[in-house]
């Protein structure tokens, strides 16, 4: 039902998430934000079971902030991703595992941009592009076909639009709008919401 | 509205392990029940729930509370309108037509009730207590966002243990009108318009086509009333009376209570007069 996508460029990461908060067959909210700001240059996109998503993401968010307060400097995206994965793994075989799928996107001042794919079984993979949800089945091949490591920002947004149009055309569920954000060395930027009209 | 806990034996699931104390926050979930050895060991009053599809291992005992109700709330320029029905059902039996499904948490916060009656009223009473403690500690009223977050965090600890609660926390704080949907699954969503319960889809239809930000208080009340009425018309598990509340900057006011049958005749006469 829910959809997340991330595309890494040479000096930025572009991420988008749909805006629907659903409860069985009803759309409860049309402008729900699924991205959590972990720090100035790290975003966590989180989908999955109701309740688990917000509770887990906020837990990670608070802990990343606590690290900054204790140590005086921020966790790098790679460290934050591994911290998140470790938490998922620790809870996986407990009585209360978190059923969440995540994308972590960040910009490290030394290593550059990074996109990390995590799923509810606590796997972690650094990838140039990634997607979550049923929509991923439709859009990963588009990303495979048209992605290049040296994409410009506009080209990345066009690639994102291609994916959204494909969802609009072929995906059975209506995902009318997507929140889009871009992370680069300046920080996190809100781009224009991607809205798709009738087919 | 499910009052299954009131009926004895055949629709309810009373499983009580006396070796564990019911300390707050440490209730035994269904998973810890039925695992303690043979009958006659500890005091275990296990009544098998015939409505439940046979789980003989006794571990995944899910109590089938139908969210048999219609409750709705929406924001507009003059605050929040809250409208609810008043029918309680236990299976196909109508247990009551006069249930109060709006819980008055404090003079400026309201909570609605859908799901298990005991769950809703207990947790919202607990929320009232937490809100009062906040007021005493911080010398200012709690915001609707904070109140709903307190409730969501409280019930999240019991996720998967059979709580059934779908509630809307409505109020007015320094940011203006506030409306949050909180349920026992862990959802907590801020919004302008919600309907909860088995009749919610019917209510959404009427509300979505009639709601505007610039409604007058009268129009908004009538919209809420009409939406509940239409839901009770189609949904067998909703009915009784329509209870209407208005939350404004001074707090909440009870607007009206109308029997659905009376409304039915009223609207029919209006429709005839129209022709």
TrEMBL record, chain A:
Keywords: Cytoplasm, Nucleus, Proteasome. It is found in: Cytoplasm; Nucleus. CDD domains: proteasome_beta_type_2. It holds the Pfam family Proteasome. Its main location: cytoplasm. InterPro entries: Ntn_hydrolases_N (IPR029055), Proteasome_beta2 (IPR035206), Proteasome_bsu_CS (IPR016050), Proteasome_sua/b (IPR001353), Proteasome_suB-type (IPR023333). GO terms for cellular component: cytoplasm; nucleus; proteasome core complex. It comes from the Eukaryota. GO terms for biological process: proteasomal protein catabolic process. Component of the proteasome complex. The 26S proteasome consists of a 20S proteasome core and two 19S regulatory subunits. The 20S proteasome core is a barrel-shaped complex made of 28 subunits that are arranged in four stacked rings. The two outer rings are each formed by seven alpha subunits, and the two inner rings are formed by seven beta subunits. The proteolytic activity is exerted by three beta-subunits PSMB5, PSMB6 and PSMB7. Non-catalytic component of the 20S core proteasome complex involved in the proteolytic degradation of most intracellular proteins. This complex plays numerous essential roles within the cell by associating with different regulatory particles. Associated with two 19S regulatory particles, forms the 26S proteasome and thus participates in the ATP-dependent degradation of ubiquitinated proteins. Component of the proteasome, a multicatalytic proteinase complex which is characterized by its ability to cleave peptides with Arg, Phe, Tyr, Leu, and Glu adjacent to the leaving group at neutral or slightly basic pH. The proteasome has an ATP-dependent proteolytic activity. Belongs to the peptidase T1B family. This is Proteasome subunit beta.
From TrEMBL, chain B:
GO terms for biological process: proteolysis involved in protein catabolic process. The keyword Heme does not apply. Belongs to the peptidase T1B family. Its main location: cytoplasm. It is found in: Cytoplasm; Nucleus. CDD domains: proteasome_beta_type_5 (cd03761). This is Proteasome subunit beta. The 26S proteasome consists of a 20S proteasome core and two 19S regulatory subunits. The 20S proteasome core is a barrel-shaped complex made of 28 subunits that are arranged in four stacked rings. The two outer rings are each formed by seven alpha subunits, and the two inner rings are formed by seven beta subunits. The proteolytic activity is exerted by three beta-subunits PSMB5, PSMB6 and PSMB7. Directly interacts with POMP. Interacts with ABCB1 and TAP1. Component of the proteasome complex. It catalyses: Cleavage of peptide bonds with very broad specificity. The active site is at residue 69. Gene3D superfamilies: Glutamine Phosphoribosylpyrophosphate, subunit 1, domain 1 (3.60.20.10). GO terms for molecular function: threonine-type endopeptidase activity. One of its GO terms (cellular component) is nucleoplasm. Component of the proteasome, a multicatalytic proteinase complex which is characterized by its ability to cleave peptides with Arg, Phe, Tyr, Leu, and Glu adjacent to the leaving group at neutral or slightly basic pH. The proteasome has an ATP-dependent proteolytic activity. Keywords: Cytoplasm, Hydrolase, Nucleus, Protease, Proteasome, Threonine protease, Zymogen.
């Amino acid at each position: 039902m829910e959809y997340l996508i991330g595309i890494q460029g040479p000096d930025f990461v572009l991420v988008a998430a749909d805006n629907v908060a659903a409860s069985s067959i009803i759309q409860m909210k049309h402008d729900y934000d699924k991205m959590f700001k972990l720090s100035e240059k790290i975003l966590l996109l989180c989908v999955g079971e109701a309740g688990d998503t917000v509770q887990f993401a906020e837990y990670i968010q608070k802990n990343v902030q606590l690290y900054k307060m204790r140590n005086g400097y921020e966790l790098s995206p790679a460290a934050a991703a591994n911290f998140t994965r470790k938490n998922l793994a620790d809870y996986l075989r407990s009585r209360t595992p978190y059923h969440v799928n995540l994308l972590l996107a960040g910009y490290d001042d030394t290593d550059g941009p990074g996109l990390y794919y995590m799923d509810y079984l606590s796997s972690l993979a650094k990838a140039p592009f990634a997607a979550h949800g049923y929509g991923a089945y439709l859009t990963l091949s588009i990303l495979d076909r048209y992605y290049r490591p040296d994409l410009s920002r506009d080209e990345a947004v066009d690639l994102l639009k291609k994916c959204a149009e494909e969802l609009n055309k072929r995906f059975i569920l209506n995902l009318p709008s997507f929140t889009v954000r871009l992370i680069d060395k300046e920080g996190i930027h809100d781009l224009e919401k991607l809205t798709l009209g009738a087919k | 509205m499910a009052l299954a806990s009131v009926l004895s034996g055949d629709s309810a699931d009373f499983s009580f392990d006396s070796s564990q104390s019911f300390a707050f926050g440490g209730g035994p979930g269904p998973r810890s029940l039925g695992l303690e050895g043979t009958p006659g060991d500890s005091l275990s009053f296990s009544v098998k729930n015939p409505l439940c599809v046979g789980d003989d291992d006794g571990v995944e005992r899910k109590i089938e509370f139908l969210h048999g109700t219609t409750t709705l709330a929406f924001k507009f320029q003059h605050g929040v309108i809250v409208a609810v029905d008043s029918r309680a059902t236990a299976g196909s039996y109508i247990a009551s037509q006069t249930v109060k499904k709006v819980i008055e948490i404090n003079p400026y916060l309201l909570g609605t009730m859908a799901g298990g009656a005991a769950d809703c009223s207990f947790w919202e009473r607990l929320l009232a207590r937490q809100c009062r403690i906040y007021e005493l500690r911080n010398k200012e009223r709690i915001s609707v966002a904070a109140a709903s977050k307190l409730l969501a965090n409280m019930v999240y600890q019991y996720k998967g243990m059979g709580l059934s609660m779908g509630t809307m926390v409505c109020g007015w704080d320094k940011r203006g009108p506030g409306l949050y949907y909180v349920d026992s699954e862990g959802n907590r969503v801020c919004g302008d318009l919600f309907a909860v319960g088995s009749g919610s889809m019917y209510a959404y239809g009427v509300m979505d086509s009639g709601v505007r930000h610039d409604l007058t208080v009268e129009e908004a009340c009538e919209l809420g009333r009409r939406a509940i009425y239409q839901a009770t018309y189609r949904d067998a598990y909703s009915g009784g009376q329509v209870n209407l509340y208005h939350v404004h900057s001074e707090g909440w006011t009870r607007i009206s209570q109308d029997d659905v049958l009376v409304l039915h005749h009223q609207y029919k006469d209006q429709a005839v007069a129209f022709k």
